[in-house]
Design goal:
This protein is of the alpha/beta class. The protein has 4 domains: about 210 residues, FAD/NAD(P)-binding domain (3-Layer(bba) Sandwich); about 180 residues, FAD/NAD(P)-binding domain, CATH 3.50.50; about 140 residues, no CATH class; about 90 residues, Orthogonal Bundle (Arc Repressor Mutant, subunit A). It is built from 17 helices and 35 strands. Strands 1, 2, 3, 4, 5, 6 and 7 form a 7-stranded mixed sheet that branches. Strands 8, 9, 10, 11, 12, 13 and 24 form a 7-stranded mixed sheet that branches. It has a 7-stranded antiparallel sheet with strand order 25-28-29-32-31-30-33. The longest helix has 19 residues. It starts with 16 loop residues before the first strand and ends in a 10-residue tail after the last helix.
Amino acid sequence: MENITNHPILKIPKRKLVNFSFNGKKLTGFEGMVISSALFMNKIKIFGHHVKDNSPQGIFCSNGQCAQCTVIVNGKPVKSCMTPLADGMIIESCEGLPELPDDDKLVSVGDPPIIETQVLIIGAGPAGLSACQILGEKGVQVIIIDDKDRPGGKLVLQTHKFFGSQEDVYAGKRGIDIAEILSEAVHSLSNVDVWLNSTALAVFSDGLIGILKNNEEYIIVKPKYLLVATGAREQMLVFPGNTLPGVYGAGAFQTLVNRDLIKAAERIFIVGGGNVGLIAGYHALQAGIEVIGLIEALPQCSGYKVHEDKLRFLDVPVYTSHTILSANGDNQVESITIGQIDKNFNIISGTERTFACDAILIAVGLNPVDEFYHKAKEYGLKVWVAGDAQEIAEASTAIFTGKIEGIKILKEMRLNTIDNLDKLEEKASIMKLKPLPPVQIDVPDIEEGIFPVFHCNQEIPCNPCTSVCPQKQIETIDDSIMQLPYFKGEKECTGCGRCVAVCPGLAVTLIDYRKDKNNPIVTFPFEMTIEKLKVDQIITVVGNHGELGQFKVIKSRIIKEFPLTQLVSIKLTSKIAKYAVGIRLQPSIVREPLELYYKHPLANDTIVCRCERVTVGEIRKWIHKGITDFNELKALTQVGMGACGGKTCTPLIYRIFSEEGVSLDEITPGTLRPLLIEVPMGLFARTKEEDKYRI
């Protein structure tokens, strides 16, 4: 079984094992775990086969946005990534077309209840929770809903420490802890109702919102004010093998690993060097999963340099100016083929390499889940939008935008007594800034006493180190959150190590020359094992340009306030002490490419619509015939008519239009109609349980 039993950050809860079957095979899983994770736990990654071409189907988004993971449970179709496992479940693959019943009995039909509220918030992630707290503390009646079993959104997947400031966005705390802080604040408000496992299905022209509450009851909510904080969905790429089981978004991977504690793969390869891809790689290493490599099409990674450095220091190869050429395997991912690209993004012949892996994480950006907002605006509702649904940015930014939109709603209600809106908007705009290019930093020239060395070399919005120093000796230029920190040295450093432990980028070391100027003691942060490193244990010390050698641990300690970050002290020579930036347990690993064939991409045969298995070639054929209306293209090819409603393929198709010389201004967009997500028809009629899946 592939469940994680040891993790340096996450607590392993006690979970009840239950019995279930999949295609007649008796298996066990943890009660309440979603079915897809229970199948992964039993090393099952193919859940069924597509009716059109018999292609293997597995998870893709793991977020309820598509239906690729659909299985039959006790005779009823469900999304395995959204359905909790229960004892005795009989689970079967979706194979072929379902047979409708020969006869259907009459059922009584009831009207759904209509519930009125002052504010409805769709999405209980960092933005929704922050807005809810602002509103709730002013006595506003709020209903906040989320389609997951716990609030927090993507925060519940984030085991790393967050950037920003401690005062505003809990910088230095981990996403999982911030989720608890925000959730507890909202749950403490008596005028707030939190509906979990509840999905917004549609926005109607009369101002009503259709909601599937607790996955079992259809309810109409009539809010006076609506806030959409629905987050984002991951972008996909078009390449041969892109629909093989084992190709999925980084968020799906983090859901399996960090939420459900499933070892989702043995060896992964990451496509995309933004923060999402870089962080997912770090999370994989913490879970004991080997990261074979990461590729980025640009000449440099677009994510924070400290995130990239964490991977490099842990011996993960980062290939810039590279792209994926194909995912290879018969029924699931067995390898990846990559190639170097020139400045015009053309493949450089002879640079193709194939690496063995069993999962490929796609982390090439996010698209806002903003359909509800635009529909509500079209219908004239009083609606606001926050978080990634407003603009793709970091979770810290979502906390700001949630607060901002909450204050705007209070102003609309004439209840606002908060006058810091301008300041919050200024801070949010800073958090949204793209990282500047890295700069060369000078190491301190002093070699006496004890002091911190800051190895962060990129101006990003982050300053928790300035808040934790008990001597108040760490500052940034002009007290700006965007400036790099420095040690003033007006008071003696106490060597407490708090600046080392709090740093989200693990980019601070502490150097102590007091006992031996020729061989100072350097203290590093370490988060890769739950067991404390032992005295005399041999570890590898690395610098910005590679390994500096192997050395013995002389001490390992943990500060109570930062219990999951070890402070590991090592004696180094003065020649390398200031240039040592990180440690790892093992020496460098040589990852040789496989001697496999290189399959040249046949772009026209590549799938662009996963649900209906429509190829790039089919789309191009109709574009060449002059089709520029997305609705007409849908009628001709069925593209966008699958269960996901075009959520994944629509941006890809727009890209194909662009490649064929058709500007976005010439395209008639597709019409979005309710429902925005699929739901059993019987729930609308409020029929009995045994009939609710009849369609």
